[in-house]
Amino acid sequence: MFGSTARWSFWSEPARVRLLVVAVEAVAIGLAVATLSSGPPTGADLALGGWILLLGMAHIEAATGIERIRRRVTATAYFDLSSVWTFAAALLLPAAVATGVVVVLYAHLWLRVWKPARVPLYRLVYTTATVVLAAVAAHAVVLAARAAGAAAHELPALGWIALAALVYLVVNNMLVVGAVALGEGLGEPRTLLGGLDDHVLELATLCLGAMVALVLTADRWTAALALAPLLVLQRAVQVRQLEEAATTDQKTGLLNTAAWRSAAARRLERADRSRGAAVLIADLDHFKSVNDTHGHLVGDAVLAAVAAELRAEVRQHDLVARFGGEEFVVLLTDLTAGGAGRREVLAVAERIRARVAGLGVPVPAAAGPVVVDGLSISIGAAMFPEDGEELEKVLAVADESLYAAKDAGRNTVRIASGPVVPQARRSTDDAAAPVPAPDPVAARPSARAGGPFAE
């Protein structure tokens, strides 16, 4: 029926990820079975669960087109708006019925959204398990509220609802973040945890879930009115993600050239002339040998790793983009004016150069994982407004500086208005000493391996 299990994408994940997935799913199944020991649910609970399920499925059907596009265009941290219904179920229903709502709702989500978007089945199963655990944990808070005096079959006070939402959020997020961290390694916090907009979206869905639960205690039909604002919210999120996809380089996650030029031009127009700015153009040396030796997929992995090093070295507000091929561009702003600013730029460029020189990129290979290393990068820089008062002029001067760095032997840095080198490389006549080109890019065996794992 299923064919060879070795072909499942689940088996391409590292062993530590597979272990976490199996463990979480086993715990979720165990808790689901344990919830049945409290006795069979009442007819009223089943009817309310069925109504929540009906509303959730209607929401999925209405948003199918939106959700399919979202699943295809974004690879970043993603929060599912179905938590409106699963959180409401956790607040109102016994744990066993709430678990049933989660399982049926996500099965419907798989058939209508995830499967057409080619999301692997094991991710759906794992996500369902994390939501089951989050819902059971949130319901435990409701039971604690009732033990403290809250009326049965009614929503607890606002403080208890807020605590239940916090527990739901933490349990779900920690399990998803744990899987991502084990699969891809510890990267930037935004990659692991998602951005502020992601968490605001999740908070909004939990608030809507609490409001749906409150309405359901009074009039079940009125709860259907939540569908309209939920679809508007979903459409707004889709627009934001499409805008982000249109401005992002898909291989590196950095800005693409058009987006960078537009943002950089606006920054320089508003720049305070008493504070300097600079443009860096960085080009990987001998990058063709990476593609020729290991293939273009490995080359893409190297580009992504170098992009991550660039992003990690500069400040949050600095603009970083892939400029095409193996070239990257950075706009540094709010620099000290004059020579001190040049020294700041040089220090940043040198740190980037050193990061890339020490970089090892783990990649899969037929004979086992290898690490691509021996990389180097040449960097040219130009200052604003000294080397130009418009972006295109500063870019042209930075490009000339890049060629000077290449001519100097590669794996070095040059800034416009004459060669500038770090003190440790300065010779007695204050001229730059060329840096020897590195050996061809090498690959050595590695025990490290990783794979993408996102909800």
Automatic annotation (TrEMBL):
Protein's name according to its UniProt entry: Diguanylate cyclase
Gene Ontology, cellular component aspect: plasma membrane
Annotated organism of origin: Pseudonocardia dioxanivorans (strain ATCC 55486 / DSM 44775 / JCM 13855 / CB1190)
SMART domains (alphabetical): GGDEF
TM helices/strands, residue ranges: 17-36, 48-66, 87-109, 121-145, 157-183
Alphabetical UniProt keywords: Membrane, Transmembrane, Transmembrane helix
Region (Disordered): 421-455
GO MF annotation terms: diguanylate cyclase activity
Biological processes per GO annotation: cell adhesion involved in single-species biofilm formation; negative regulation of bacterial-type flagellum-dependent cell motility
Matches recorded under Pfam families: GGDEF (PF00990)
UniProt lineage: Bacteria, Bacillati, Actinomycetota, Actinomycetes, Pseudonocardiales
InterPro entries listed in its UniProt record: Diguanylate_Cyclase, GGDEF_dom, Nucleotide_cyclase, Rev_trsase/Diguanyl_cyclase
Biased composition (Low complexity): 430-449
SUPFAM superfamilies per record: Nucleotide cyclase
Residue ranges occupied by any GGDEF domain in the UniProt entry: 275-418
